[in-house]
Specification:
By secondary structure, the protein is α/β, with parallel strands linked by helices. The chain has eight helices and seven strands; from the N terminus they run ααβαβαβαβαβαβαβ. The protein has a single domain, classed as 3-Layer(aba) Sandwich (Rossmann fold), CATH 3.40.50.150. Strands 3-2-1-4-5-7-6 form a seven-stranded mixed β-sheet, sandwiched between helices. The longest helix has 14 residues. The protein starts with 24 loop residues before the first helix and ends with a strand.
């Protein structure tokens, strides 16, 4: 039996952080002044308990829509929006400090083809139509290094099944990580949900994508001597 929240929406465990250290005054301003206007619509459990679907075509006037899952500080998300003005991109991130950082970067870059869901991507999956997303990014996700916590990782059926549902046939799914056993789990699990790995040679995983921008998480991994892995999959 599915457990329900008092609102009527599905109840899900969440294992990450929603907030860290106190926000700076300007970040509080960003949240107050900018976040509502950048929302893709009623997404969260409490504001949309019936999970009324959203129309991605209406959000971006018929442009292809991309999705970034857990955007951290937003460097990559803003870079993609600026590099590809002909697409619309939605970022999902429950960590409010990261959301505030992103809003500052959006102001600075002046991009207008980007929307923000400050919450769990599973809420977004609930309201996206089938085959509505053209590309998805999972970049330096929480590694959950302990073996008993591997079930909390994104590359598990709970997340991959709805991701596969919302991606269009032929859509790209990019994964970047510096954790070797996360790579192993990704290569094992992702193909089970209708994806094929795109690779021209055995060393493709060493080379980032042509429109890649390094993030703070990648720079930390480089400083600590961990090799980077760049994996590309295509929805069959």
């Amino acid at each position: 039996m599915t457990v329900k929240h008092p609102s009527g929406a599905p109840w899900r465990n969440f294992y990450g952080r929603f907030k860290g250290k106190s926000l700076r005054p300007n970040q509080e301003v960003y949240l107050q002044e900018d976040l509502d206007a950048l929302s893709p619509g009623p997404i969260g459990r409490d504001v949309n308990p019936d999970r009324t679907p959203i129309d991605p075509d209406a959000l971006f006037d018929g442009k292809d829509v991309w999705l970034e899952i857990g955007f951290g500080g937003g460097e990559h998300l803003v870079h993609q929006a600026a590099t590809h003005p002909d697409i619309g991109i939605v970022g999902c991130e429950p960590y409010i400090n990261g959301v505030a950082m992103l809003l500052g970067k959006i102001r600075e870059a002046g991009v207008g083809n980007l929307l923000v869901h400050p919450g769990d991507v599973r809420d977004m999956f609930d309201v996206l139509p089938d085959a509505s997303i053209s590309k998805a990014f999972l970049l330096y996700p929480d590694p959950w290094p302990k073996t008993r916590h591997h079930r909390r990782r994104f590359v598990t059926p709970e997340h991959l099944e709805p991701l596969a549902r919302v991606l269009k046939p032929g859509a790209e799914f990019r994964v970047a990580t510096d954790i070797a056993d996360y790579v192993c789990q990704t290569l094992e699990q992702v193909p089970q949900f209708g994806f094929e790995r795109l690779a021209e040679g055995p060393d493709d995983w060493r080379t980032p994508w042509s429109d890649w921008v390094s993030t703070r998480y990648e720079q930390k991994a480089i400083r600590e001597g961990r090799p980077q892995h760049y994996l590309t999959f295509r929805k069959r």
